[in-house]
């Protein structure tokens, strides 16, 4: 029987599954050195990381490791 008439939901105290490998954003190549692959690629710094974006060819997207 629950104490004080209050029962905890079963999912609240369940253990969390173990964390797997870090997940990388889909569609980005993760590299140690970035370079522009065409004239339309541009480099952006966001959240302390360097990114390469390209509007004409989205395959050129990169992130610095």
From TrEMBL:
InterPro entries to which the protein is assigned, alphabetical: Mitoribosomal_bL36m, Ribosomal_bL36, Ribosomal_bL36_sp
Keyword Protein transport found: no
Key words, A-Z: Mitochondrion, Ribonucleoprotein, Ribosomal protein, Transit peptide
Pfam families, sorted: Ribosomal_L36
GO molecular function: structural constituent of ribosome
A GO biological process held by the record: translation
GO cellular component, one term: mitochondrial large ribosomal subunit
Record-given protein name: Ribosomal protein
């Amino acid at each position: 029987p629950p104490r004080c008439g209050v029962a905890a939901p079963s999912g609240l105290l369940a253990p969390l599954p173990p964390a797997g490998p870090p997940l990388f954003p889909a569609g980005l190549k993760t590299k140690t050195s970035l370079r522009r692959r065409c004239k339309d690629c541009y480099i952006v710094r966001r959240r302390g990381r360097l990114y390469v974006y390209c509007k004409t060819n989205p395959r050129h997207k990169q992130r610095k490791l």
